[in-house]
Write a structure and sequence with these properties.
It holds the Pfam family tRNA-synt_1c. It comes from Variovorax guangxiensis. GO terms for molecular function: ATP binding; glutamate-tRNA ligase activity; zinc ion binding. This is Glutamyl-Q tRNA(Asp) synthetase. The chain is of the alpha/beta class. It contains nine helices and ten strands. A three-stranded parallel beta sheet has the order 1-2-3, covered by helices on one side. Helix 1 crosses helix 8 and helix 6 packs across helix 7.
């Protein structure tokens, strides 16, 4: 299989310093594998309520200014709904997905009744209220069944293990920490956990390089991959760029859009991203020269597969 990586931004705001780290890392990881490898860009605009018109195109322009050009035309999640529906239909037929009628308040009440403590800003497992029926309520969402609702059961999902190329051995008890998670939300959009699995498999992605804040999603995505009989890519989660308050730099906490309006500004943005990845500052006058120099350094630091 052709080595294939991807960068998959959500068009909820322009690229900022944190998102460029993930873009540069995924690009370098592909280029370090040689000329046969592919780097793709996917605009993850499935959550249409949060995505802003024109930002997908703006992000593509920012990437181009930094010399990060995809090897194929970018794809947009809003044009791929048939793929997600097909996957949901398959999971439902296999008793690995079911409709859920719970509101957030319903879930809180059920967890309280089970004695599950409230954790501030933490995720709590779904209590399984609708696993065996809606109990007269209308369906609000669709959930993935961590344990199959009919045999055979898959014991591997209880303590799912994988290896991260930077973070090392990882594991998560998905049932205990998350429970049956959402595949399609009550307000209609496809959930990230389903869309990303379907897209990566359909596009032939072999190696996922993304921010460390997404590492916690990996076990859920591997569970969906296994249920659908899809291959599991390799994973590398990059260091986070932190804001002044120590929190992850993001659009929600005031991350400033990247200035890529001139080659000098684009080179400065790339230099900052490279330093976050442990790469040396470039002896270069333009982005293309810097990128060429970093490919060899990436091979030494992260040892990508051939």
């Amino acid at each position: 299989m052709t080595p294939t990586g991807r960068f998959a931004p959500s068009p909820t705001g322009p690229l900022h310093a944190g998102s460029l780290v993930a873009a540069l890392a995924s690009w370098l990881d592909v280029r370090a594998r040689g000329p046969q490898a592919r780097w793709l860009v996917r605009i993850e605009d499935a959550d249409t309520a949060r995505c802003l018109p024109g930002l997908g195109e703006h992000i593509l322009g920012q990437l181009a200014a930094c010399g990060l050009q995809p090897d194929e035309a970018p794809v947009w999640q809003t044009r791929r709904t048939a793929f997600y529906q097909n996957a949901l239909d398959r999971l439902t037929a296999m008793h690995r997905a079911y409709p859920c009628g719970c509101s957030r308040k319903d879930i809180e009440i059920a967890l309280a009744a089970q004695g599950v403590p409230l954790v501030r800003h933490g995720e709590r497992p779904y209590p399984g209220t609708c696993r065996h029926g809606l109990h007269g309520r209308p369906a609000r969402a669709w959930r993935f069944a961590i344990d199959a609702l009919a045999p055979p059961l898959d014991p591997a999902v209880h303590d799912l293990r994988w290896h991260d190329r930077r973070l090392g051995p990882q594991s998560q008890d998905v049932a205990a920490t998350v429970g049956d998670f959402v595949l399609r939300r009550a307000d209609g959009p496809w959930a990230y956990q389903l869309a990303v699995v379907v897209d990566d498999a359909e596009q032939g992605v072999t190696d996922i390089v993304r921010g460390e804040d997404l590492a916690d999603n990996t076990a859920r995505q591997i569970a969906v991959q296994r249920a659908l009989g899809l291959p599991t890519p390799s994973y590398l989660h990059t260091p986070l760029v932190l804001a002044a308050d120590g929190q992850k730099l993001s659009k929600q906490n005031g991350a400033q859009p990247l200035d890529t309006g001139t080659p000098g500004a684009a080179l400065a943005a790339l230099d900052a991203a490279a330093r976050a990845l442990g790469l040396p500052s470039p002896d270069a006058a333009e982005p293309a020269q810097a990128l060429a120099g970093w490919v060899g350094a990436w091979r030494v630091l992260y040892n990508p597969r051939p």
